[in-house]
User: Which sequence fits this backbone?
């Protein structure tokens, strides 16, 4: 009994562990809006997965990566600002996903799960995706960490110092797409970005190195998953939103409790 | 736009690259949405030479630096850099997110190996001692400039490339920074290529000035460029209402801006301070 709870825990913790470092990088690289666009387009991936019969997660990986590539191409020759392009892509992808989803399958009951996550319905195959995909993400990040950090600080300087910025950027986008896709089941297309950035923002207050922040963010994410699932059991609330709420509460607590530190950002 | 093949310029050939050249650009054209940012621009920096690019905003100064550094491939024209050239680059804009936890030490070693002693020596050279352990977000604009300069020096540069190195630094600090650049370059026999708005401030330390307004308006020794009709037309005579001068110092500045007396003293005159009655 309670197998579903153990699977939920395993899935949630797996996602939290990779969301920590990836979310930290998304904050440092000011890619929050980009991350939202990717996660919203994950819904289109659900459609693709259902149509092709390759599974929801595989479909989401393909679509997320394709959207990331499309954005790189769009950005090259456009006068529209990044923010505007992303805003358009985000909601066009979401709307298209919702429209097509109704055509390809009678999923109105599942729709809520795709949008907000359905962690209590995590199946063994989802765990394979999460832990397998997570291992790939961590391996990619470990490989490109140093050059990625250098180009996060200053891309042109890094390029001049020999960092192959285009290849590293592509590898990182692949990692973000993979995290987004495997997180779909856990928190849903609308809430993925929150699991990426809230633990990272919480970790910032108590860390002094990039690696420290990435590790603490992963830990904060794990605590959020455990706390959210616990709250859901106790009060019978929807589990995935409860996880995000716990993460937000931890962030609020870190803001309230953090004493001014030497490395705290200077208020503007 | 016609694309001419990237050039074959080789040192030693007549009408080619001088033997002491570090970087050479010839006939570079860069066009953006139909307008020529750079129009057949030539540029040469030799070992031990300081070349300053001046020009109005939007004149293509940074674009020319990027072409010279190989960060931007021109639509046509040739670019040659000495093979294996060590370049220390200080970009004009340097902003990082407030959420990035990083110390100066980490910034200095992101893509260069440097021991604590090497970092300390480099920071001391630019007047930024003691900043090694500080978080980037704590630095003032002037301190960050110096740290970036220290980072460039750690790369054992044969060529220092500085894009408006004194942005956000007060006047006295600017003079001091240009002196630092000159001293660091001289001790390494490095070439310097920099962009500056302030010809009057760089005159003392610059060998050659290139006045750029999409094309090279005029080029030569600072004194002659400052008298050149094209330069005067661009800058309306004396820039910023400050007299052109070749400065000399009776004090230096620490990174904090505090005045530090130099060891020598001007003793040909004395100041007597006394209250007026």
Assistant:
């Amino acid at each position: 009994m309670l197998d579903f709870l153990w699977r939920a825990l395993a899935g949630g913790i797996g996602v939290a562990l990779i969301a920590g470092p990836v979310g930290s990088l998304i904050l440092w690289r000011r890619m929050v809006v980009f991350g939202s666009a990717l996660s919203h387009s994950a819904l289109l991936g659900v459609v693709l997965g259902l149509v092709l019969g390759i599974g929801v997660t595989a479909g989401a990986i393909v679509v997320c990566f394709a959207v990331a590539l499309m954005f790189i191409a769009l950005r090259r020759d456009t006068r529209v600002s990044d923010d505007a392009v992303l805003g358009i892509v985000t909601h066009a992808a979401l709307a298209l996903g919702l429209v097509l989803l109704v055509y390809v399958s009678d999923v109105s009951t599942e729709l809520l799960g795709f949008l907000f996550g359905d962690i209590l319905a995590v199946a063994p195959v989802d765990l394979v995706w999460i832990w397998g995909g997570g291992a790939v993400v961590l391996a990619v990040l470990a490989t490109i960490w140093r050059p990625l950090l250098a180009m996060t600080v200053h891309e042109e300087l890094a390029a001049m110092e020999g960092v192959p910025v285009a290849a590293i950027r592509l590898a990182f986008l692949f990692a973000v797409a993979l995290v987004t896709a495997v997180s779909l089941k856990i928190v849903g297309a609308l809430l993925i970005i929150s699991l990426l950035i809230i633990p990272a923002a919480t970790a910032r207050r108590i860390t002094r190195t990039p690696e420290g922040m990435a590790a603490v963010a992963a830990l904060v994410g794990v605590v959020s998953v455990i706390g959210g699932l616990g709250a859901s059991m106790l009060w019978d609330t929807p589990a995935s939103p409860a996880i995000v709420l716990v993460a937000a509460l931890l962030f609020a607590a870190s803001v309230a409790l953090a004493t001014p530190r030497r490395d705290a950002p200077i208020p503007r | 736009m016609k694309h001419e093949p990237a050039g074959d310029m080789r040192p030693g050939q007549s009408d080619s690259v001088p033997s002491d050249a570090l970087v050479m650009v010839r006939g570079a054209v860069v066009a953006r949405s139909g307008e020529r940012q750079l129009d057949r621009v030539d540029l040469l920096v030799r070992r031990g030479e300081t070349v300053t690019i001046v020009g109005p905003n939007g004149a293509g100064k940074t674009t020319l630096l990027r072409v010279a550094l190989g960060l931007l491939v021109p639509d046509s024209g040739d670019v040659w850099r000495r093979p294996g050239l060590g370049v220390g680059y200080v970009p004009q804009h340097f902003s990082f997110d407030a959420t990035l936890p990083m110390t100066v030490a980490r910034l200095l070693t992101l893509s260069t190996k440097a021991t604590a002693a090497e970092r300390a020596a480099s920071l001391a050279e630019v007047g930024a001692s003691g900043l090694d352990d500080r978080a980037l977000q704590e630095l003032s604009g002037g301190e960050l400039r110096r740290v970036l300069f220290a980072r460039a020096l750690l790369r054992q540069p044969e060529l220092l490339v500085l894009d408006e190195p004194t942005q956000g630094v007060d006047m006295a600090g600017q003079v001091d920074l240009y002196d630092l650049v000159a001293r660091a370059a001289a001790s390494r026999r490095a070439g310097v290529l920099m962009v500056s708005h302030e010809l009057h401030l760089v005159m003392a330390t610059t060998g050659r000035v290139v006045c750029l307004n999409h094309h090279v308006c005029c080029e030569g020794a600072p004194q002659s460029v400052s008298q050149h009709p094209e330069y005067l037309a661009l800058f309306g005579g004396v820039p910023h209402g400050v007299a052109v001068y070749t400065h000399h110092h009776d004090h230096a500045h620490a990174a904090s801006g505090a005045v530090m007396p130099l060891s020598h003293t001007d003793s040909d005159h004395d100041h007597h301070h006394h209250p007026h009655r």
User: Anything to note?
Assistant: The first strand of chain B starts at residue 21 and ends at 32. The radius of gyration of chain B is 20 Å. Residues 1-8, 10-14, 239-249, 261-277 of chain B have pLDDT under 50 and may be disordered. The first helix of chain B runs from residue 61 to 69.
